[in-house]
Design a protein that fits this description.
Largest sheet: 8 strands, parallel, barrel
Distance between the termini: 19 Å
Order of helices and strands: HHHEHEHEHEHEHEHEHEHHH
Mean pLDDT: 86
Number of helices: 13
Strand order of the largest sheet: 1-2-3-4-5-6-7-8
Number of strands: 8
Strand content: 5-15%
Helix content: 40-55%
Structural class: alpha/beta
Shape: globular
């Protein structure tokens, strides 16, 4: 099992996810998760706004199989929208349909999303539908299309590792789209498997949407791709109001500040909440160099959770072999 596969497997483990909630943002997660409550996340947003950076806020949540959990998630997101409006911060919402009940009942999820989108629309706040694994892909697109009949403040994500991504980006070119490489483990029947193939498709999707789409969020931490897109934007004279660069909270902060200083529209993806574990493990899968952060936090804080032992043990084994 590769290091990436290991952390993706951890992210999908419900037992570990439930246990992680007991320990707050230990194991280094506090560096990539902007707090556990609305007050803390608003404070983080204000700090980013002070540097000319806008934010998209994700109320973290995984493994929602009860209607009560989905309803609680909906109420929390509605409260975040109210807080954004009341504090006058530059921020919008990112959400996962599965957190709002997609795995329970499609119509139930639709009603939850409808309430969220309607309130956000009243306050002129954008709502982005995050994309998850392949099994949830088409239902999430269906929800987007149904809700867009009455609301135009919604958009979604195109994941470059899927073979169908080119078809999807053409279909949804009139939506605001965040284009990403993809963070889940998908089979070779539906997704590219090599970095080279994913990167090539990613750049092609970005270029297509920049030239033909409504608004493009260039979501990457790869400085080579960022430099390529900056040149592409300049050559094709793409208006500033048609795109933004986007990165995750806690990653490459110096580059985030630099891009904002250079005058580019920049947005930071700001996750918060108690249900941080799955998100954190997928970030480690994407950027294995952050394992050092996990090891350092686990042993400095003497955290003896099963999560810490598993992740740190595997990491030390890998680092030892490299020596």
């Amino acid at each position: 099992m590769s290091l990436k596969d290991f952390f993706i497997a951890l992210s999908e483990n419900q037992f570990l996810n439930n246990n992680a909630k007991k320990y707050g943002l230990k194991m280094g997660a506090a560096s990539v998760v902007a707090g556990t409550n609305i007050e803390e996340v608003i404070k983080s947003i204000k700090e980013l706004n002070s540097h000319g950076i806008s934010c998209t806020v994700d109320n973290l949540g995984e493994f929602v199989h009860e209607r009560s959990e989905a309803t609680a998630a909906k109420e929390q997101i509605l409260a975040v929208i109210e807080a954004i409006h009341q504090n006058g911060v530059d921020a919008h919402i990112s959400l996962k349909p599965s957190q709002l009940g997609l795995d329970i009942n499609y119509d139930f999820c639709y009603e939850n999303l409808k309430e969220i989108v309607a309130l956000a629309d009243d306050y002129d706040i954008f709502v982005n539908f995050d994309m998850e694994n392949y099994d949830r892909l088409q239902p999430s697109f269906d929800l987007l299309e149904e809700l867009s009949v009455d609301h135009d403040n919604i958009g979604t994500v195109i994941q470059a590792y899927f073979f169908r991504a080119k078809e999807d980006i053409e279909k949804f070119k009139n939506y605001r789209l965040r284009i990403v490489k993809g963070a889940y483990k998908e089979p070779g029947e539906v997704a590219y498997q090599t970095k080279e193939d994913i990167d090539r498709n990613y750049i092609e999707l970005l270029e297509y949407h920049l030239l033909n789409g409504k608004f493009t969020s260039i979501a990457t931490h790869d400085h080579n791709i960022i430099n390529h897109m900056k040149q592409f934007i300049a050559v094709h004279d793409i208006p500033k109001e048609k795109y933004e660069f986007q990165m995750l909270y806690g990653f490459r902060r110096d580059m985030q500040l630099e891009l904002a200083k250079e005058g580019y529209n920049f947005c930071t993806y700001v996750p918060f909440g108690q249900d941080w574990y799955g998100y954190f493990m997928r970030r480690l899968a994407e950027r294995p160099q952050n394992i050092e952060l996990v090891v350092k936090q686990v042993f400095n804080k003497r955290t003896n959770t099963i999560i810490g032992v598993a992740a740190a043990g595997f990491a030390i084994g890998r680092l030892t072999k490299r020596k």
